[in-house]
Structures are given as C-alpha cells and as structure tokens.
Specification:
alpha/beta, about 40% helix, disordered C terminus
Length: about 270
C-alpha cells in the first residue's frame, strides 16, 4: 500500500537555533545523510529569522524549508505577523499549521487552522497539518479525529488533501520522554487514512503522507514506523541535533523500503 509514498521527515526547531547554528546544522546533517536526501523528503522548520539564510545554505540540495505558522488575514497591516507571501519570498515551500503550542497560546480554533490552510494553498505553500487529541482526551483518538478532521480540511479538494502532510500528534506526547505506543499511533494514523479515503477518495488516501510527532527520538524510530500507515516522523528536540535527526532519517529510508519505486509526480 505505502509503496509509492515518499517517506517524510520533519524537524520543528521552534524558537531555538540562530542563523549560524542553523547553517552549521545543515552542513553537518547533509554530511551525515549523503544520498538519502533524495530518498526521504526532509523539511526543516527553523525560526522565521533563519529562513532566508538557510534557503541559501541549502542551495541545490533537496532539503526543503517550512515555516512554523502564518497569518491568514489579507492585506499588509498585521504588525508582528507573517503572511504566506512573505514566507514564499524567503524560500519556504511548506508551513506547519495547528501546532498545539500555537493553539494553546492564541486560543486558535480548528476553523482558524482551516482558514490558514486555504491562505497557504492560495500562495502556493504546501501544508503540514497537526492534529490529535488533547491531554484530557488521551485514549479517545478516533472520536476526536472524527470530529476535528472535517473542520480542519473543510473546502479542500482531493488533490490538495493528497498533497498535504497530516501529523498525528496527541497533545500529551509533546516534549514527553517517549512517544505514544506504536499500536496506538498505528490505529490513529490508519483511522485518518480511512477517513480521507471516505471523504476525498481513494487516490487522496493513497497519496497523503500521515506522519507521527511527539516524543520522537532515534531509539523509537523503527517501532513507530512499523505501521504501513505511518509515512514518517516529526521531531522537535531531536530535529535540532544533526546526528540524531540523521539517524531518524536513515531508519526512515530503510524501514520504508519501497521509496525506490515511488512515482510521486509532484514530490
């Protein structure tokens, strides 16, 4: 089933990493992964301040850049915010939307995440949508996902949904010493794929990459990737360590062996 989906690795640097640290990371990380950079789609999400400099540092390599958020409103008058157009201008191809830390800080709703999704898509950005259950909803993944997915993806067409990456990240795993159990993650990701298939068609369900984020580190990588519905991983702390993140990418490349056959026309 997963044979043609290119494995996906995401590093969210949050508010860490200066421009110099980011450049050192890129050079050290590229040395460690070699030809794997073409077998796994790797997206780094540095702070806004480092986007332009890292775009230059990546040069002709196939690493890609994402932003950690955006402002969906039109016009140019939102002091302190950043628009999809400015992100594209700085060299961004992706944007993370709906991260728990943003939601908690700003009270952002699922409908607002959806508005940001459409704003990103109009500007030509690809979306990384974070979804999962709250701390107090632990163990109720499917019930929560069934309620949130329709709002998150409202108005998206099948191709847009297929080109998105959906990150399953339950709130209780953020910054946790270890991730949720592989079985729990597997059933949540399978549920998301089934739901996408039902609402947007089988082609979208086959194309969409569904990855897991939350407490990800190299020692858990292999178990987390055992499920055919988990196409990759998102790392926070370990995504800032070139050695640890390279180990995650290596395991991803070897666990998802079919990457040699994929024919993702718009990878």
């Amino acid at each position: 089933e997963s044979s043609h989906r290119k494995p996906f690795a995401l590093a969210n640097w949050k508010m860490a990493m200066t421009i110099e640290e980011g450049k050192r990371f890129v050079s050290s990380f590229l040395d460690r992964i070699g030809e794997l950079e073409d077998r796994v789609q790797i997206v780094l999400c540095p702070p806004y301040t480092a986007l332009y400099a890292l775009s230059a540092a990546i040069g002709k390599h196939s690493l890609e850049l994402g932003a950690q958020n955006l402002w969906a409103g039109s016009g140019t008058t939102h002091t302190g915010e950043i628009s999809p157009r400015l992100l594209v201008d700085a060299g961004c191809g992706w944007v993370i939307l709906g991260h728990w830390e943003v939601r908690r800080r700003t009270g952002e709703t699922d409908a607002e995440v959806n508005k940001k999704m459409h704003s990103a898509l109009r500007a030509g950005l690809r979306t990384i949508l974070m979804i999962g259950e709250e701390k107090e909803q632990q163990g109720q993944a499917e019930r929560v996902l069934a309620k949130r997915l329709p709002v998150f993806l409202a108005g998206g067409d099948p191709e847009q949904v297929g080109r998105s990456v959906i990150v399953y990240e339950p709130e209780w795993t953020i910054g946790a010493p270890e991730p949720a159990s592989p079985d729990y993650i597997s059933s949540a990701c399978a549920f998301i794929r089934k739901w996408v298939g039902r609402e947007y068609g089988q082609e979208s369900a086959r194309e969409v990459r569904i990855i897991y984020g939350g407490g990800v580190s190299p020692e858990f990588t292999k178990d987390l990737l055992a499920s055919p519905d988990v196409d990759g991983l998102g790392a926070g702390r370990k995504g800032r360590d070139p050695d640890a993140f390279a180990r995650i990418v290596r395991t991803l490349a070897s666990s998802k062996r079919a990457e040699k056959k994929f024919t993702l026309s718009h990878a």
